[in-house]
Design a protein that fits this description.
Layout lengths: L5 E3 L4 E7 L3 E5 L7 E3 L8 E3 L14 H18 L5 H15 L3 H14 L17 H14 L7 H12 L14 H11 L2 H9 L1 H8 L5 H6 L6 E7 L4 E2 L5 E3 L2 E7 L5 E7 L4 H11 L3 H7 L15 H14 L8
Antiparallel strand pairs: 1-2, 1-5, 2-3, 3-4, 6-9, 7-8, 9-10
Length: about 325
C-alpha cells in the first residue's frame, strides 16, 4: 500500500493520501473529507488501476474553464499541503474562505473533488448537455415553428389542432389512439418560449424594434442612467376645438410624462395654457388616482392597468420592489 493507491472495498473505493502510523484516505464515492483508518480496514481490499473520470482532460477544456479550474485549485492549494494536520487544514480553508469570499463548504467540495481524482481538470465547471426531446416534444416544436410563429398569427389551440392533423392522424384523417393533450402542448410552449421570437415571427422585425424591444440601449442610458428618470414632452395638438355654438376656440396644449426605462405613461396635461401652468397640471395628474380619473371620463379600469399615483422616482422604486418580491408571469396564448 502506498500513496495514491486506489483500494476497492465492499462498501466503496478509497484513495490513499498518506501512509504512516495510520492511513489517511478519502472515500471516492461519498467524496467526504479525508479520514484516518487503520491498516486492518484495507486488509480485504483490492487495488484497482484508476477511476473512470466524469470530466474532460485539461487540454480539452476551453480557456475559460481552464482558468476557473486553476483558480479553484489556488483556493485549496494551502489545504492540500497540510492534509495530515486536520486543525491546520481547517485553518487554511477558513483563511481561503475569507480571502476569496467563498464559503467553507464550497472549498471542502473543491478539495474533496481534487483529492479523489488528483487532477486539476476535475475542478472545471460542469456544463449540462440538456435533456433530449421525446418524439412528441419534437412534434410540438415543429408545430409551433410551422403554425404558431408565423405571420398568420394562429392561436395556440389552432396550432395544436393543425399539429394533430399533420402528425397524429392516419391516411383517412382518423386521430390515432395516443397523442399529446393540449395542456402538454401549452406547457411545452410556455417552457421554451421567448417573447422576442414571438413578436418578431408574428409581427416582423420592424414592428418589434418600434413597439416591443426593451429600451435599454445607449440612447436611454445617456440621459437616464438611474431608475426613476422621467421624460417630458409637450406639443400643440393638431386639432381645432369648437364650443357648443360651433365657434372656433383654438388648439389645446398636450404635455406628457413617461418613465425612461419602462415607457410607462406617468401622467398628462391637456389644457389651453402652456409653460408652468401645464407642468403644474401635469404633476397633479401624475399624483392622482388613475382609476378615479378614468371613472370620471367614463372609462373603467383596474388598479393594475395604470397604477401610477406617485412621482417618477417613488413609482419606479415601488415597481422594482414588487417585481423582486413577486415576479410577473403573464401568459401569452
Amino acid at each position: 500500500m502506498k500513496k495514491n493507491d486506489l483500494i476497492k472495498t465492499d462498501s466503496s473505493i478509497f484513495r490513499i493520501l498518506s501512509v504512516c502510523d495510520s492511513v489517511l484516505a478519502i472515500d471516492c464515492k461519498k467524496k467526504t473529507m479525508p479520514q484516518f483508518f487503520s491498516y486492518d480496514f484495507f486488509s480485504d481490499g483490492e487495488i484497482i488501476n484508476c477511476l473512470s473520470p466524469d470530466y474532460l482532460k485539461f487540454e480539452d477544456l476551453s480557456p475559460a474553464d481552464r482558468k476557473i479550474a486553476q483558480q479553484r485549485y489556488t483556493m485549496i492549494a494551502s489545504a492540500v499541503s497540510v492534509l495530515e494536520d486536520v486543525k491546520q487544514r481547517n485553518l487554511m480553508l477558513e483563511n481561503s474562505s475569507k480571502q476569496f469570499g467563498i464559503s467553507k463548504q464550497t472549498l471542502r467540495s473543491y478539495l474533496c473533488t481534487y483529492l479523489v481524482y488528483q487532477d486539476i481538470a476535475a475542478l472545471a465547471p460542469k456544463h449540462s448537455k440538456g435533456k433530449e426531446l421525446t418524439q412528441d416534444q419534437k412534434n410540438m416544436r415543429w408545430a409551433l415553428n410551422k403554425f404558431f410563429y408565423t405571420r398568420n398569427q394562429n392561436s395556440l389551440p389552432t396550432a395544436y389542432t393543425m399539429m394533430l392533423k399533420a402528425k397524429y392522424c392516419d391516411d383517412y384523417g382518423v386521430l390515432l389512439p395516443e397523442y399529446p393533450s393540449f395542456n402538454q402542448f401549452r406547457y411545452f410552449y410556455r417552457k421554451h418560449r421567448k417573447m422576442e421570437n414571438f413578436f418578431i415571427s408574428r409581427d416582423g422585425i420592424k414592428d418589434y424594434q418600434m413597439n416591443n424591444r426593451p429600451l435599454l440601449g445607449d440612447g436611454v442610458q445617456e440621459f437616464a442612467p438611474l431608475v426613476g428618470t422621467a421624460m417630458l414632452d409637450g406639443t400643440i395638438c393638431d386639432i381645432y376645438l369648437v364650443n357648443d355654438k360651433g365657434q372656433l376656440i383654438g388648439r389645446p396644449v398636450l404635455v406628457v410624462a413617461c418613465d425612461a426605462n419602462t415607457s410607462m405613461c406617468l401622467g398628462y396635461s391637456l389644457s389651453w395654457q402652456g409653460g408652468t401652468y401645464s407642468l403644474q397640471n401635469l404633476m397633479l395628474n401624475i399624483s392622482e388616482d388613475k382609476v378615479a380619473l378614468c371613472e370620471r371620463m367614463g372609462i373603467h379600469i383596474t388598479a393594475d392597468q395604470w397604477d401610477v399615483n406617485q412621482p417618477p422616482a417613488l413609482w419606479s422604486q415601488m415597481v422594482a420592489q414588487n417585481t423582486r418580491a413577486k415576479p410577473l408571469n403573464k401568459s401569452q396564448n
